[in-house]
Amino acid sequence: MPGGRLTQADRQQIALGLADGLAYAEIARRLNRPTSTITREVMRNGGPTDYRADLAHRATQQRTHQRRQAAPTRHKASAQPYGRDTAAVRDYQETLTTVFVTSGVPRMMARVLACLYTTDSGSLTAADLAQRLQVSAASVSKAITFLESLDLVRRERDQGRRERYVVDDDLWYQSMIRSARSNDEFIETARKGVDVLGRGTPAAARLENAARFLDFVSEALIRAAEQGREVLYTRSDSAGTPAESEAHQSDL
């Protein structure tokens, strides 16, 4: 990627761009950086309204110092299977975290979700998450409670009766259904407002149109989720296990 690490001058330009109301993509273009770099920089340092260049630069220096001190332990703890590059996986996990954050998930919850999604088993215990993310068990518990309320993770117990937190394919379906149904209360309330405000009046028409629109979209979303649910369990013909891929390469 162009430019290497962000400098203090880069961060000052980011702050000025945010103050001017520029989009992340425009700030990135002016600095000749990937948009994801700018997005990640802003979201990990207070967000677009609270970003401060000097504080962001100081926080980055502190994180770098902490990583260097903890590097031997973390390297051992995060050894990757299938010959994956540990640094590349860590960077990707941070990128995925940023994507979750920009979609509205709080950062700690986004870190837990990204950690689970980049684990082959798709499940980890609270102790696993606390060790991998270098956070307290209380932080993990709070994050899991939030994610579970959105149907983004579920709990199960393993043979040792330990509680594990799981992400699996069906959670996408459950989350989609929940999202579609989240409009039901507004739709019902809007339709009651039509009678209160007087059918045919501008205010009532506005509420009725909103209710009809959301009702249509919700039902269409539910139908699409039902029809597409099997996609979650259909394996692509081009996909293979890492072992199969290596065997294929050795045959060439």
What can be said about this structure in brief?
The chain is mainly alpha-helical and 252 residues long. 68% of the residues lie in helices and 4% in strands. A three-stranded antiparallel β-sheet has the order 1-3-2.
What does this structure look like?
It is a single chain. A 3-stranded antiparallel beta sheet has the order 1-3-2. The protein is mainly α and 252 residues long. The radius of gyration is 23 Å and the shape is globular. The chain has 13 helices and 3 strands; from the N terminus they run H-H-H-H-H-H-H-E-H-H-E-E-H-H-H-H.
Describe this protein with a few key phrases.
about 250 residues; mainly alpha; 13 helices; disordered C terminus
- Give the mean pLDDT: 83
Order of helices and strands: HHHHHHHEHHEEHHHH
Spatial order of the strands forming the largest sheet: 1-3-2
Give the uncertain stretches in residue-range form: 73-77, 244-252
Shape: globular
- End-to-end gap: 32 Å
User: What is the count of β-strands?
Assistant: 3
Rg over CA atoms: 23 Å
Which helices and strands appear, and what pairs or packs with what?
Layout: H1 8-19, H2 24-31, H3 35-43, H4 47-50, H5 53-77, H6 86-102, H7 107-117, E1 123-125, H8 126-133, H9 137-149, E2 154-157, E3 163-166, H10 169-181, H11 184-197, H12 202-228, H13 242-251
Helix pairs in contact: 1-2, 1-5, 2-3, 3-6, 6-7, 7-9, 8-9, 10-12, 11-12
